[in-house]
Design a protein that fits this description.
Layout lengths: L9 H4 L3 H14 L6 H13 L4 E5 L2 H11 L7 E4 L6 H8 L3 E4 L2 E2 L4 E2 L4 H4 L4 E4 L11 H8 L5 E3 L7 E2 L2 E2 L6 E5 L13 E5 L2 H10 L23 H10 L3 H19 L16 E4 L3 H10 L28 H9 E4 L7 H15 L1
Parallel strand pairs: 2-3, 2-6, 7-10
Antiparallel strand pairs: 1-11, 4-5, 8-9, 10-11, 12-13
The structure holds pyridoxal-5'-phosphate.
Length: about 350
């Protein structure tokens, strides 16, 4: 039986290979590698894609979160609220600003921040609330905003490029949003990259300054705040610009694959994800997850677990809580299983996964 890979980026990148190589040649010869025209062009295009007005390209998604949080006023003596069900980078970015991370549990059906739990978590010290669009499904931003009483929302949109909520794009749903262009994300660079998008010109200007040593637009050697080396480089920006026009089509392929999965998995003792979003991952929930996963591995099916531990049950983050504090997040971590999902996955592969899963669940 042929193996089904968990992810195969090559299938949709292959037709772009010649363009990517030519772009590398051109930029390598130009000698201009940072803060150039390619970066500006991509920033313009990605802001447009997100249907918002500003984009600042940064080095990676974690830095996008950190710089956006700093610009929103996070720092020592302040708190930032997020969820335990996320990639650990969300917590790292918060802690790196000096602010104290505060967790609220997820809502089991959306697997995103539960708005009903925010009243207890948001207070006078809260600098920002960071909903995570987990697996490419959008957090209920309207309900979250209503529960936050004017505290700015920063979307962790690292898994949700192009997703829509009531017509509005991920990236346009809060005060600002942080994206990652890590190679496996829905829009991936050939290396690391990230972006902050926002409709707020002042916020964008602050992030722009922070990513380049706190300089001013007029004078790169006048440091008006303490910043960092946090830029997206011209080469990665140009690669992303080549891929961006394909993103909506690739997301549509993910959505079609998800629809095929729903049909193929009907009747199995597994929970399938909601129909909305852009399926960065197709994460089912299943009892005896590790056994089921081992059976799939034996059948040649690639899988992954995002994430086996909620944030607070990692040794480095014990201060965030103990077992039992966030039951919905803990239950998701124990049961979640990511099945093969990528643009270009074939119907016969999805059927093969479903058959192997049916056998594993017996
Ligand atoms: C990938 C990811 C990040 C971090 O992005 P990097 O580019 O890897 O730094 C942050 N949050 C979430 C939810 C992610 O999936």
């Amino acid at each position: 039986m042929t193996a089904v890979p968990f992810i195969d980026l090559g299938r949709r990148q292959a037709p772009l290979q010649g363009h990517l190589a030519a772009t590398f040649e051109r930029i390598a010869r130009s000698g201009a590698f940072t803060l150039g025209a390619e970066l500006e062009e991509f920033e313009h295009a990605f802001a447009q894609f997100c249907e918002t007005s500003h984009c600042v390209g940064v080095s990676d998604g974690t830095e996008a979160l950190r710089l956006a949080l700093l610009a929103l006023g996070a720092g020592p003596g302040r708190e930032v609220v997020t969820v335990p069900s996320t990639f650990i980078a969300t917590l790292e970015a918060i802690a790196a600003t000096g602010a104290r991370p505060v967790l609220v549990d997820i809502e089991p059906s959306t697997r995103c921040m539960d708005p009903r739990r925010l009243a207890d978590a948001v207070g006078p010290d809260t600098a920002a609330v960071v909903p995570v669009h987990l697996y490419g499904h959008l957090a209920p931003m309207t309900e979250i905003a209503a529960a936050c009483g004017g505290v700015p929302l920063l979307e962790d949109a690292a898994q949700a490029h192009g997703a829509r909520l009531g017509g509005a794009r991920a990236g346009s749903l809060g005060a600002a949003a942080a994206f990652s262009f890590y190679p496996t994300k829905n829009l991936g660079a050939l290396g690391d990259g990230g972006a902050v998008v926002t409709g707020d010109a002042e916020l964008a200007a602050t992030v722009r300054s922070l990513r380049h040593h706190g300089a001013t637009p007029a004078d790169a050697n006048e440091h008006i705040r303490r910043g960092a080396t946090g830029r997206l480089d011209n080469l990665q920006a140009a690669f992303l610009q080549l891929k961006l026009p394909h993103l909506d089509g690739w997301n549509e392929e993910r959505r079609s694959a998800a629809a095929l999965y729903r049909e193929a998995l009907a009747g199995l003792p597994v929970e399938v994800p909601a129909e909305d979003g852009v399926f960065h991952l197709f994460a089912i929930e299943v009892e005896r997850r590790d056994e089921v996963r081992a059976a799939l591995t034996a059948a040649g099916i690639g899988t992954a677990v995002h994430y086996p531990r909620p944030a607070h049950l990692n040794p480095a983050w014990a201060e965030l809580g103990s077992e039992g504090d966030f039951p919905a997040a803990e239950r998701l971590a124990a049961r979640t299983l990511s099945l093969p999902m990528f643009p270009g996955i074939e119907e016969r592969e999805i059927e093969q996964v479903a058959q192997a899963l049916a056998a594993a669940c017996e």
